[in-house]
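User: Predict the complex.
Assistant: Input components as received:
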Amino acid sequence: MTDSFVRTALALTGALLAWAADFVFVYVFAAIACEKGYAGKTVAGAGIVPLASLVATFAAAGVTIWLLRAAIRGRPANDSCEVFASKTKVAVGALAMIAIGLTALPALLVRGVCA
Amino acid sequence: MSSAGASPAAAAEDSLPNPLPRPQGELEALERVWKTPRGWRIFSAVNNTTIGLFYIGTALLFLVLAGVLALLMRTQLAVPDNDFLGNRAYNQIFTMHGTVMMFLFAVPVVEAVAVFLLPNMLGARDLPFPRLSAYAYWAYAIGGLAFFCTLFFGVAPDGGWFMYPPLTSYTYAPDSGADWWLLGIGFIEISAIAGAIELVVGILRTRAPGMSLAKMPIFAWAMLVVGAMIVFGFPPIILGTLLLEIEREFHWPFFIAEKGGDAVLWQHLFWLFGHPEVYIIFLPAAGMVSMIVPAMARVPLVGYRCIVAALLAVGVLSMGLWAHHMYATGMPHLSTALFSAASMAVTIPTGIQLFSWIATLWRGEVRMASPSWFLLAFLATFVIGGLTGVMLAVVPFDWQAHDTYFVVAHLHYVLIGGMVFPLFAALYYWAPLVGGRPLSERMGKWACALMFTGFHVTFFPMHITGMLGMPRRVYTYSAGLGWDGLNLVSTMGAFVLAAGVLVVLVDIALHLRVAGKVRANVWDSPTLEWLPADDYGFRSIPRVDHRYPLWARPSLADEVDSGQHYLPGTATGGRETIVTSPVEGRPQYVLILTGDSWLPLVAGAGTAAFFLLLTAKLHAPAVLGALVALGAIFRWLWATDRGATHAPVDVGDGLALPVYASGPQAHSWWAMVVLMLVDGTVCASLLFSYFYLWTVTPGAWPPAGHALPAMSSAAAAASLWLASSAALSWANHLLGRQSSKGALALAVCVGLACAVAALCVQWQGHAQNGLDPTVHAYAAAVYATLAYQALHVVVIAIMGAYTLARAFCGLLAADRRVTFDNTRLLWQYTIGQGLAIIAAVHVLPRLAG
């Protein structure tokens, strides 16, 4: 394992940071849309806020899946620190995927975004 | 000799780093260097193990004081229409109870336990900044006690521990109570952040050789995550308290609706800190549990990697939960649902930890001693608190239960269940490290039984009183509402709970003695803190090749104690520890640590005096306090950047390590980066406030009646900031070429002049437009960003002057440049912040039309 802390830290928490970016985007977008009065706009029949929320969720899920795939494929055989990092990345990625999935639910289920 | 980066794991398993016999006088020299001062000089001690004990003792004192306040409240509420306490006294007492528990007990005690345990748990002689820990402790202890004394003078805050405006605005709370809270916790925030820097850098850089991240004890993982959470979680409240105090003192209307402010902004800033705070308290407790459970069950922890993943997940997810305290503020439905979903998500990693502990207990053969009793009390109580938390995460339920006693019950189940029971388990588990023998088993079990019973008798009925509609924070209630009997039961339970705590205190008084050398692995525990230790930590720094080194290598204790591992003496005649690489734990250099000194105490007292005297509006003495603090801090820093005073030293295993490092390898560089993360988060919180006010302001931004300065003024300011950056890069170049001190001074002074000019240009642009910070929240927010930037210019001016002073005293050179590197980091950060502020204030409003 290369002894780069920043790289290791980003690798371990990357999937969670993808969730965080998704979460912040959806929260900020919904808040601004509601305050500034354009939450009612639609694109191809879909509300702009749920649509933006789902796009962000798919992007975050895509990043997480990519990270998970890299962790599973690049699994080393003999370095205990590498093995630890690899398995932990998989566990973190799985937890992040659940969180990202839950973050998508409000956009799908909530009626009256700004009510 | 091999290079500094060589791996200790490469050595054969049974080839120990240093041979026997050890040279005569080696141990005596080590003892002499590390000897803890005796008598009244003990207060000049900076060794983290000693400071950790002070810290734990003081935090427990605050637990007792806040507990007494709780008993007063419960006595008042025991019967309806009681007049034991008046409404004003009750308000002050419940505010101080919450504030003291959260700010003066819960956060400090987890940092205290970490400061005490981590040096030995990581195999370090000490953490890298012992004087910083001592400073953090003294600021906390002196300031905390003075803050608590406001109760006795009738000036204690009474707005609740979350101090919501407008209740705490100058209109509705004109007396000084809120000021005591807002400025009084300033030193606690500083103390917590200083502690976090010490812990993060210590965990990443002073682990024993071979202790890679994969072999790090779970408690260290938990504290690493918590340190990061403090770094990102505390800045919003630092900013919030500053803004509210500025509003109260200078009438800048950040939170006043009729002047464009918004009281809900305070709630955002408070809970951006307040919710991570819950996990800042819980995660260390979870880390303690993850250490105690394997020792008591006598098997390795089930799911080590899953627990690490869970800690990381909780650390990040908990940053996205803050608004679940704000469901009743009228947020958009989608936002409330989003926070509800995040609140559900965080239960999963928490559940993973719970199941891991249960599985470990199930797999092992549990020793039913006092720590195990407290662990079981924790598991049962915390699970109930977690489940009611899930209930409250559901928006419609929260709307019904909001601000009722149901919430009071929930938060105490989580905080006492999730933190106090594990803390007492830890107290009983690790007590032998202090005095060489365990506390009384009999008293421990009695204490646990009383606390568990008392706790549930107190708080379980509150679920029902809450559901029956009893609001929190009422000082009395009328008879016949169905709350009478339940409140009486709660009060009786509170006294039983207090009796349990009293038994623990008596046990400590009777059985805990501070011993010198401790060799007492009474639980047959597997981790390094149980090695024989003295003031210097371990005789030699162990080579670690297993997650449970004492189980994997039963001879380790004897090997370490006989000096066969790394650095068995003092190589330079001073206090030292080995700095290792952050991921794999490869030895990199020998850090010469600072010794005992009165300076941290003086600096801590000065800091506390500054905040407290400022609150009392004694401005001149407050400035004097600040100068004393700064003077003491610079005096201690003066002796730190020593350069390579010795040739590389042989630490064992054929490793010759340098005694000095600069740039990204230096431990102080890491500390500076962590400090800048704190600083950057304060700035981000300020910009969040600015954008928040923009969002909630109807119509254009700037609002009607306010205008932006000409873009040429912003462009001029940006150019000056960039010129300042270039000047400092020039200074860096000059230092590398060992040019004259005069040229270096010229470069630094030009850089500073450019920074001051940039600030003046921005300030003048707004002033010329007639922007008045007392008129509208927009103006207040703009001036707040400028004031924050001005503060940075002052700081870089002080650091620049300090750096030049060192240069002219011959203490700065191309190969002795840590001071300059740290100044440069902050300087360049300031430039970046200045440009970000220009973008937010000048560019984005124009782009938005």
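The two ends of chain B are 67 Å apart (CA to CA).
Let me know if you want any component modeled separately.
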